[in-house]
């Protein structure tokens, strides 16, 4: 696991204190404390107190060796997952539908993290999840030092996740071309696998949508998560009478053999410490209706 990072501050970098720099980089306060008392942050190879300035061209060296024992271990499983993006600190994979993101039991195998344990040289670390029956871009960290930074990017909406879904058209109401679904989500007391709209104890949940295509049989939606509740998109669309095609949990009319037509097609974030923006797109699986045409539009940036 990588624990040491060296960053040269860019030419357009505005001068700020060491403390402000670490705050802007979303480094947790507890870790800032360790870096300070152990003098494990160096500016141009020398320790500099946190109230002093750093400027453009400075070399910042961070040593997170106090995190070496924090890795979570998974049993390895055979297989290979398609890598969409990779750098020293993280990867983005195109998760196939039908594979769980992570194991729920210590002896469980066959999930994304079991496969990545065998596929990668670095132990994989979780940042976010995708439902088992959903395909698409999934971000995985390779260093514990970047996990809380990426977590904060997610909670502060610096990181974004966009999805495509084919849904059955509502029978009673028409759907505007774009809008926001704002419905709280809680557990379904009748089925522990499911979530439901819950106005009493549910957590706030917001999903933005845009209609990309529609006909009498189905509607293609582009969806952006403003929050990240379990099954959020699936619950929100089902609540509007627009169940995702192939969703056997929230669309009881689906045949079990069908694929769920929900795909995480785009993920964007900032690289930890450099803050360079990264956008990764995940090609749709072949079974997704109009996949060739949609993938072509994604490549052209017309979505």
Automatic annotation (TrEMBL):
InterPro entries, sorted: PsdUridine_synth_cat_dom_sf, PsdUridine_synth_RluA-like_CS, PsdUridine_synth_RluC/D, PsdUridine_synth_RsuA/RluA, RluA_PseudoU_synthase
Keywords recorded for this protein, A-Z: Isomerase
Catalytic activity, reaction form: a uridine in RNA = a pseudouridine in RNA
Enzymatic class: isomerase
Molecular function as annotated in GO: isomerase activity
Record-annotated Pseudouridine synthase RsuA/RluA-like domain positions: 89-239
E.C. number(s) listed in UniProt: 5.4.99.-
Protein family (similarity comment): Belongs to the pseudouridine synthase RluA family.
Purpose of the protein: Responsible for synthesis of pseudouridine from uracil.
The protein's name: Pseudouridine synthase
């Amino acid at each position: 696991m990588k624990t040491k990072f060296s960053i040269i501050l860019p030419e357009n970098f505005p001068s700020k204190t060491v403390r402000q720099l670490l705050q802007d980089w979303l480094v947790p306060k507890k870790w800032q404390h360790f870096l300070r008392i152990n003098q494990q942050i160096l500016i141009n190879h020398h320790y500099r107190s946190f109230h002093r300035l750093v400027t453009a061209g400075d070399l910042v060296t961070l040593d997170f060796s106090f995190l070496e024992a924090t890795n979570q271990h998974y049993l390895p499983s055979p297989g290979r997952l398609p890598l969409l993006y990779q750098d020293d600190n993280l990867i983005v994979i195109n998760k196939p539908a039908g594979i769980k993101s992570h194991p729920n039991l210590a002896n469980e195998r066959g999930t994304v993290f079991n496969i990545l344990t065998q596929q990668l040289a670095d132990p994989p670390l979780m940042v976010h999840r995708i439902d088992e029956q959903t395909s698409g871009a999934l971000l995985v960290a390779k260093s514990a030092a970047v996990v809380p930074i990426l977590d904060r990017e997610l909670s502060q909406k610096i990181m974004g996740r966009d999805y495509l879904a084919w849904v059955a058209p509502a029978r009673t109401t028409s759907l505007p071309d774009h809008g926001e679904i704002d419905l709280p989500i809680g557990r379904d007391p009748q089925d522990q696998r499911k979530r439901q709209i819950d106005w009493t104890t549910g957590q706030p949940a917001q999903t933005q949508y845009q209609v990309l295509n529609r006909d009498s049989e189905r509607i293609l939606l582009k969806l952006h998560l403003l929050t990240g509740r379990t099954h959020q998109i699936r619950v929100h669309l089902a609540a509007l009478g627009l169940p995702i095609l192939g969703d056997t949990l929230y669309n009881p009319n689906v045949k079990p053999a069908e694929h769920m037509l929900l795909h995480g097609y785009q993920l964007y974030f900032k690289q930890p410490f450099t803050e360079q923006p990264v956008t990764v797109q995940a090609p749709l699986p072949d079974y997704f209706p109009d996949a060739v045409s949609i993938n072509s539009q994604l490549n052209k940036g017309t979505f």
